[in-house]
Amino acid sequence: MKLSAGIMLFRRKEGGVEILLVHPGGPFWKNKDEGAWSIPKGEFTENEQLLDAAKREFAEETGFTCEGPFIELTPLKQKSGKLIYAFAAEKDIDATGINSNTFQMEWPPKSGMLKDFPEIDRAEWFSVNDALLKINAGQAKFIEELLTKL
């Protein structure tokens, strides 16, 4: 089973809570919006501590570090079978300042040419209601659980 860990940042604004979500990079995701966003996360091995993996993946995908304090959220199993572990943390970052690592894939398909793409092409702060529309449906319970813990 594939394992993934991530950090969901939140901040408090006058209108309530806002959630930071990231949009996956690459040509497949270019024109996808609702249901395509995610918390910053990534795969890890069973040899790595959950929180260490979540912090590493957050840094790789955003270019920012996060030291907590953290709120541990209930792991969620995705339709793909992947198990996602998440931690929430209250921190305000400039979403326009993300700097994601990249991945390489053949593009255009069957061209024989390899091209680099950012793992995350953008990040944005959303109100809770908008975040629930934008986030991958399999991760929405992270937002709902966070609200019960605040």
List the helices and strands and how they pair.
Blueprint: E1 3-13, E2 16-24, E3 41-43, H1 50-62, E4 70-77, E5 83-90, E6 102-106, E7 114-118, E8 120-127, H2 128-134, H3 140-149
Parallel strand pairs: 1-5
Antiparallel strand pairs: 1-2, 1-3, 2-8, 4-5, 6-7
State the main characteristics.
150 residues, alpha+beta, two-stranded antiparallel sheet, 3 helices, 8 strands
**Class inferred from helices and paired strands:** alpha+beta
Averaged pLDDT: 95
Distance between the termini: 31 Å
Helix content: 10-25%
- The counted number of beta strands is 8
Enumerate how many helices there are, as a single number: 3
Structure description:
By secondary structure, the chain is α+β, with helices and mostly antiparallel strands. It is built from three helices and eight strands; from the N terminus they run βββαβββββαα. It has helices at 50-62, 128-134, 140-149; strands spanning 3-13, 16-24, 41-43, 70-77, 83-90, 102-106, 114-118, 120-127. Strands 1, 2, 3, 4, 5 and 8 form a six-stranded mixed beta sheet that branches. The protein has a two-stranded antiparallel sheet with strand order 6-7. A hairpin with a 5-residue loop joins strand 4 (70-77) and strand 5 (83-90). The longest helix has 13 residues, at 50-62. The chain is globular. The termini are far apart.
